[in-house]
Design a protein that fits this description.
CATH superfamily: Vaccinia Virus protein VP39
CATH class: Alpha Beta
Radius of gyration: 18 Å
Number of strands: 13
Oligomer: single chain
Largest sheet: 8 strands, mixed
Strand order of the largest sheet: 5-4-3-9-10-13-11-12
CATH architecture: 3-Layer(aba) Sandwich
Distance between the termini: 25 Å
Order of helices and strands: HEEHHEHEHEEEEHEHHEHEEE
Number of domains: 1
Helix content: 25-40%
Strand content: 15-25%
Structural class: alpha/beta
Number of helices: 9
Length: about 270
């Protein structure tokens, strides 16, 4: 009930604005430049963009954490991570699309965050160059050739792997990897095999995107199998903000969080 009332109030407030682009002071303690012609921006403004995952992250993120944000888009998660991890933490954000990367830089500068490094490149299972499909709306840009929105153009982008990046940057430990790559999450994970199987394996927040099965040579179930074989247990967030086991056969959740035994003390669980 309260959420519906707040959404109605926001709608009235937005309709009284003179432009689609404005600075929004979020309930998470950071500001973001939003463009209401963009899907993610609009959803975020009306609290419909992965709000359960955002609320969960607010609870378990701690100062000093090292985080990889892969597929950062305009930086909504990046900003949250920077805010919560503080000056003793570090956020590495990757966004290959030129327009989205420009907006990512704007949002980080707006908040004057000094604990992050931004990379205008992609992450995959191999290092090199890759075709990247830029859509009319940046929310749907993809390494897969069948994205969920019309393709505007195809560009070549540099890509590396998580393991290679961590070696190059001398990163010995990562606390969290967040992945939102429009179906390429499995490729990202495969390129992080060394990290995911190490004793310091990170928490993984990623998408279980059933809509992208046609754009790659693999299926989304392959990602699920890889994660479980690597020793991760897979959960989704319920309406109460606690975790429940993700049942691949019946769940319709599109955001999942993957944990190993040593991560569980940081979370609350429901039966």
């Amino acid at each position: 009930m309260w959420k519906r009332i707040k959404k109605k109030f926001k709608n009235i407030k937005f309709n009284n604005r003179n432009c689609d682009v404005f600075v929004y002071k979020t309930r998470f303690g950071f500001k973001a430049i939003l463009d209401m012609e963009k899907v993610v921006d609009r959803w975020f403004y009306f609290d419909d963009f992965e709000y359960q995952s955002f609320d969960l992250a607010m609870k378990f993120l701690k100062e000093g954490m090292i985080i990889l944000d892969i597929g950062a888009n305009i930086g909504l998660y990046t900003l949250l991570f920077c805010k919560k991890t503080g000056l003793s933490g570090k956020v590495f954000a990757f966004e290959p699309a030129p327009e989205a990367f420009f907006r990512l830089k704007q949002n980080v500068k707006l908040n004057n965050f000094k604990n992050c490094k931004l990379f205008n490149s992609g992450i995959s299972n191999e290092a090199g160059m890759s075709k990247f499909y830029v859509c009319e709306d940046d929310a749907f840009n993809s390494l897969g050739n069948k994205p969920m929105a019309p393709i505007l153009k195809t560009i070549d982008i540099p890509v590396t792997t998580v393991d290679e990046f961590c070696q190059k940057e001398n990163i010995a430990k990562v606390d969290l990897i967040k992945i939102d790559t429009e179906g390429a999450d499995y490729l990202v994970l495969k390129g992080a095999d060394g990290l995911l199987t190490s004793e310091n394996s990170p928490i993984v927040m990623c998408e279980y995107n059933r809509n992208m099965d046609g754009g790659y040579s693999f299926k989304v179930i392959d990602m699920y199998n890889y994660l479980t074989e690597t020793g991760y247990e897979i959960y989704e967030v319920n309406e109460k903000g606690t975790l429940i086991k993700f049942d691949v056969a019946i769940s319709d959740a599109s955001e999942i969080i993957c944990l190993k035994e040593r991560h569980k003390s940081m979370f609350f669980f429901s039966e």
